[in-house]
Amino acid sequence: MATKKKRIPNMQNDSWVVIAADSAIETQKQDSDPAFVRLRNPVTDAASLYMLRSGDVQLFEVKAFEEDFHSWFVGQTVQRDGRLLFVTPMDPLYLMLPYLVKAGKEGKFQPVDQVVMDEDFPACSRLLSCTRSLSSLHHIAEEKEVGGLKFHRYSQEKTMNWLKKKVERMDTVLKARNISVGEGVKSTTYIRVKSESDYHPEDYLRYAHGMISEYLSEDLSKALLKHLQLPELTSPKEPEPPSKKRKLSELPVEAEEDYTKFNSADFARKPPKKMTSAQKSLAKVDKTGMKSMSSFFSPKVKAEKK
Amino acid sequence: MSCNSSVTWVNVSSVGQAQRVQLHLLPCEIEHNGPAQVSQYLTATIKDCKLEKTVSFRGRGLKGQELICPQGYTGLVLKETNKPGSDQEDRTVKVASVFDKLIYWNLETPPNSDDTVVMAMDWPDLAEAIHGPVED
Amino acid sequence: MDLSPFESDNSVSCRLVSEIPDVCRTEDCCLGIDEAGRGPVLGPMVYGICFCPVSKKQELKDSKVADSKTLSEVERENLFQKIDESKSYIGWALQILSPNTISTSMLQRTKYNLNALSHDTAIDLVQYALDSGVQLKEVFVDTVGPADKYEVKLSKRFPGIDVTVRPKADSLFPIVSAASICAKVARDRVVKGWNFSEDMGDVETDYGSGYPSDPKTKAWLLKYLEPVFGYPQFVRFSWSTAQTLMDSKGVTVHWDDDEEDGEKGAQRQNNKSMLAYFSASAGGKDQKSTHQTHRFFSDRRLKSLDTL
After folding, report:
1. Distance between CA C1 and CA C76 in Å, rounded?
2. pLDDT single digits (tens) A16-75
3. Phi, psi angle pair for B88, to nearest 5°
């Protein structure tokens, strides 16, 4: 077999495969071209890509289905970038929440246009022009009107009630769609439990909370958990990376020597110049199913080996 | 990282002229952007069986199936024809083609409902549950 | 020899058979196995069996069937004609392994090498003869690999049958020569009349012998290299000749099971697992974020982007 080539990074990407909500691309309205903008992601506090369309202003979220080793054939062309982008309608309140929470710490009523602004993300103030924003602000803030002007102040209580409704709706949808809320993909056996009866009602609620938390700061996520009367999991299960399906051809390799050393970070960085064939085959084995990544970092591994 | 104030406009008026195209999602990375004889080599050799489609690519057996875009959604292929010189400038992409279904291919594995791309198609419906307006 | 069952779909493997002579169901028979087209980078590999009553061995010898490789194409066609005319006591069966079958088997995730493929095909054909009621007593097999091991394997698989595996068996045992002729004739005809399922317009049919060393074959492979797809299914992608040409003149394609040497493999394994481990959304550029993407999203390989 010929030697495999190194992957050269894709520098000339100029096309994208997208599945977009029809509301994002309606052409009836004048002057309402949508645009991809960067806004502050409430979870990471860093930039994420969203879409805003002007005119009847609407916010959309952009998510990419991305898996290694994929490309597209689009008609009679190859598109190396194998991602599939989803553009889905988004509730602008999630993006406004962090600004209101922050301003709420001062405890006073303020005009929202002075609250929802961000030097780093100029497009942020456009969130207020979203048709849905002003009419739904009361879900997360108290309102006061003085001399025809509206003032708002963040309300944790209102927010919690609003989020609870979201979680409950999510809960219903998860059950209706029979989404697997168990531990998901079991590393190698790849068996998914799908029967609804196998799950505890709390599993769904927790799962729904987890999904909504993709849009909430850690503090809000915790507060919501409490509000839902779900106990915080003290020692969350060790997160495992989704492991690849094991290759049958690489099934058990007889270890002729102590192979635990190959699991050390040292080995991953600097393998010995010359390896025995047994070592080579070991190096090829997908170890993700054998040892969790955390063992790379754990100082215990070395100690245990003695 | 590019500047946060620049935006990328999507020229949606181009949707009307956009051609409907056939899309295939392949289980490999092809280090190429550009033309290829897809209909001559791929489409012409696809075998339609009851539960799956089969074809070969570069001597490897692929099994695939058709996936339909979720209801209320349209497939678009966006293309950027003129890249701006700096990341401070706004960019524009146009809708080069549209699609309402695609074919995804697995390497040797028969397509099934646990395939990640099939599961990813759940997203629009669940996004609606997360983002749809809440009644008072 | 009616090739139409194979020609209707030349991407898959196909079995062609003669009628079973009545006498083969009542008398003790010998059976020969040989293959044609193992080495070429183009076209199918054909496995053939021929069988006849042991009592007819002399008759077969007198008909001067000899190793098909030492014969010209015309001579082979004539000899096949003779075999066909002797259908009252000679039967045959062929397994055509399409080049696509060979490519996809050899390049499979769990590699299925040509030797295993050959052995399994031979075994299937012998089993076919037994299932058809042929009274098999002796089996002669031509092999390119180690004969002893293969002989033990076949003897175990078919107890009560006397199995002889020999290199160059086609020049030693007339029944193997006959099998060789059937296989070679089928392979030649298939290659000559290859029906490209790809939409390639008029394809030059001057392939040469199909062996990678043949300049004509090489020239054909150069001419018909498509940068993205490589070749039509007529070509065996698993042959290093084809691989090398695609590597040097085609577009590079990466698969998730590409082989990498230990160092790179270990490194990539490490990088990949680390990414999956942290799998922060929004490009993961934010150091202070310890956010773990919810498994709904990670199971579906969905993530946020920070730029288009």
Report:
1. 13
2. 999 999 999 987 666 678 999 999 999 999 999 999 987 768 999 999 999 999 999 999
3. -85, -25
Q: What is the DSSP string of A79-116?
A: ES---EEEEEE--THHHHHHHHHHHHTT-S-B-HHHHS
Quick count: other Cβ atoms within 10 Å of Cβ C232?
22
What are the pLDDT digits (tens) for A238-289? 554 444 444 444 444 444 444 443 333 333 333 334 444 554 454 444 444 4
> What is the per-residue burial (b if ≥16 Cβ within 10 Å, else e) of A197-229?
eebeeeebbbbbbbbbbbbbbeebbebbbebbe
Question: Residue C19 and residue C80: Cα distance in Å, rounded?
Answer: 15
Interface contact A19, partner B, CB < 8 A? yes
Query: Which one of A41, A44, A271 has the shortest CB-CB distance to C263?
Result: A271
The chains in contact with chain C, meaning 3 or more Cβ pairs closer than 8 Å, are A, B
Q: Distance (Å, rounded) from C-alpha A64 to C-alpha A66?
A: 6
| Kind plus residue range of the DSSP H or E element containing A49 | strand A47-53
Model pTM? Answer: 0.84
Greatest Cα pair distance, chain B, in angstroms, is 59
Residue C188 among known ligand-binding residues:
no
Q: Chain C residue closest to B29 (CA)? A: C254
Neighbours of chain B (3+ CB pairs under 8 A): A, C
Q: What are phi and psi of C31, to 5 degrees?
A: -140, 135
> pLDDT per residue over B61-106, tens digit each?
999 999 999 999 999 999 998 888 787 889 999 999 999 999 999 9
Determine contact, residues A283/A262, Cβ cutoff 8 Å.
yes
For residues A134 and A84, the answer to whether their CB atoms sit within 8 Å is no
Residue C7 is labelled as binding a ligand: no
Q: Write the residue in C233, C251, C307 that is nearest to B45 by C-beta.
A: C233
Give the β-pairing of B23-26 and B101-107. Answer: parallel
* Tokens of residue A150, six digits: 């509206």
Residue of chain C minimizing CA distance to B10: C308
Give the confidence band of C149 by pLDDT, cuts at 50, 70, 90: very high
Q: What mean pLDDT do residues C104-133 have?
A: 95
* pLDDT tens-digit readout, C235-276: 999 999 999 999 999 999 999 998 764 444 555 545 544 444
**Cβ separation B31–A86 shorter than 8 A:** no
Of B117, B96, B94, B92, which Cα lies nearest the Cα of B26? Answer: B117
The average pLDDT across A204-230 equals: 94
Residue among B5, B10, B41 with most chain C CBs within 10 A, to mutate: B41
For an interface test with A, give the residue of B1, B3, B4, B78 to mutate (most A CBs within 10 A).
B4
Chain C: closest CA distance from residue A21 (Å) = 17
C34 is in an annotated binding site: yes
CA nearest A80: which of C256, B37, B32? Answer: B32
Contact (Cβ atoms closer than 8 angstroms) between residue B111 and residue B65: yes
Give the per-residue SS3 of A174-221.
HHHCCCCCCCCCCCCCCCCCCCHHHCCHHHHHHHHHHHHHHHCCHHHH
Distance to chain C for B85, nearest Cα, Å:
16
Is the ipTM here above 0.90? yes
Which residues in chain B are closer than 8 Å to A94, comparing Cβ atoms? 131
Give B39's contacts in chain C (Cβ within 8 Å).
199
Q: A91-105, A191-205, A253-267: which has the highest mean pLDDT?
A: A91-105
C1 touches chain A (CB under 8 A): no
Using an 8 Å Cβ cutoff, are B29 and A80 in contact? yes
Contact B39 C109 (CB under 8 A): no
- For residue A115, the distance in angstroms to the closest alpha carbon of chain B comes to 19
AA letter at A269:
R
